[in-house]
């Protein structure tokens, strides 16, 4: 179990820290119009959280409630059987049919590290995807993408594009941010494809301020149950100077069924916007502190052995920021996988997000997959689409459902010394 009182605040302490104004804000959001089953689902979850005497990590019953007939996306289920998801073979066909009039999918190639160093390819790599998918409520609401047609932001189209991207690469581990359709779409659909999952909503999601939203956004972690056995999972509320923030992380420990080796996977989303660099640094430090404690804890048959880490996230930080430097210099021995695309292995891509808002154009590298370099090896990295592929109106678009590009890497365990 992870330690740290700042991120494991008791509900009574939480209420005291928030104060009366915060309580009124939370209550007002509970009744924000969310549409049918999503309203009832989120209200019940909020009441469970508010009345619970358990600190974060949140109970598993809160993380993965059973879907009800009222909150499932009806377009993704077979007629006459709303609780029976589509067959895994039918789902890609449905996505293709829904997207038949759209421009071509970005063509992206894997760059294999074995091509550079001459080593033989791994027998069974672990594929990891990191992706800020863009919360639906934010995309049509406060994000204000100046050059993206409103039709391109419709949920039915974006949902199919997001699922197509996931199905194209079929990761064993999928880490996502800004997930506001977890319960009605991603959890039931991906469960039908063999994925276990954990979700942690933001305490005060900006999605709840958008009329017609489907509940709070948060971080979600999915894992292929045929490849991994779940050992433990905790949700963290990140802190800055002992004060809880609105940012969260999911930390899950898995055992690979084919090798017996364990890996700890974290997914997070740090504070956005310029001027908040100090807060991102503090949140990142808090996450590192938790992870340093966790990897010291014996797990299963690897007693006394540090568990290798995979840390995926939208850090909202360019490589020059302090939080990036903190991760690069951490005693956990981390490296950023996407540096492998550069000729010298030292430089991040030019961009992982490219958008045009009313305030101007933004082209930045904000998303990362960190890994324990002494225990894990990067075998392949999915390259970035070119500026020509992205197009003059940037992201999101009819081509692509998010303002952030997915990062996909193949990893393998290094041999134990």
UniProtKB/TrEMBL annotation:
Co-factor(s): Mg(2+)
GO molecular function: metal ion binding; poly(A)-specific ribonuclease activity
Main location: cytoplasm
Alphabetized InterPro entries for the sequence: CCR4/nocturin_mRNA_transcr, Deadenylase_nocturnin, Endo/exonu/phosph_ase_sf, Endo/exonuclease/phosphatase
UniProt signal peptide: none
GO CC annotation: cytoplasm
All residue ranges annotated as the Endonuclease/exonuclease/phosphatase domain in the record: 129-404
Protein family according to the UniProt entry: Belongs to the CCR4/nocturin family.
Protein name, per record: Nocturnin
Originating species: Nothobranchius furzeri
Gene name, Swiss-Prot/TrEMBL: CCRN4L
